[in-house]
Amino acid sequence: MTWVYLGVAILFEIAFALGTNATKGFTRLVPSVLTLIAAAGGIYTLSLALRRLDVSVGYTIWTGIGGAGTVVLGAILFKERISAARLICFASIIGGAVLLRLTSV
């Protein structure tokens, strides 16, 4: 269940980041409430994952994959540009997360 909790936490992290953009500085009620719920859900499910994972591994994977997912969805939903340099950086983040997982056995 540890990795399931972390996966859910990552989804909440992505929802939080994308939702923050939709709040328009927390001036829109519904997106603001949903964003705060996503933030709380992400922190809660991350805390469940950290019962079994080292914080250095869990937090790094949470922020790294969450950030990469935010970039991909930001490009799709908000038409944000992804350069080749950015792609290399995201591949490094994902590769680092995978290596952390492999070394945390």
Q: Could you walk me through the main structural features you see in this protein, from its secondary elements to its overall organization?
A:
It is found in: Cell membrane. Belongs to the drug/metabolite transporter (DMT) superfamily. Small multidrug resistance (SMR) (TC 2.A.7.1) family. The chain crosses the membrane at residues 29-50, 57-78, 84-102. The model has no long low-confidence stretch (mean pLDDT 92). This protein has helices at residues 2-22, 29-49, 55-78, 84-103. It has one domain. The chain is 82% helix and 0% strand. α1 (2-22) packs across α3 (55-78). With 105 residues, the chain is an all-alpha fold. The longest helix is centred in the middle third of the chain and has 24 residues, at 55-78. The chain is flat and about 45 Å long. It is built from 4 helices and no strands.
Structural class: mainly alpha
Output the helix-strand order.
HHHH
Query: Over all CA atoms, what is the radius of gyration?
Result: 14 Å
Number of helices: 4
Shape: flat
Low-confidence stretches: none
Annotation, overall tally of beta strands: 0
InterPro entries: EmrE-like, Small_drug/metabolite_transptr, Small_multidrug_res
Keywords: Cell membrane, Membrane, Transmembrane, Transmembrane helix, Transport
Main location: membrane
Subcellular location: Cell membrane
List keywords for this structure.
single chain, 105 residues, mainly alpha, 0% strand, DMT family transporter
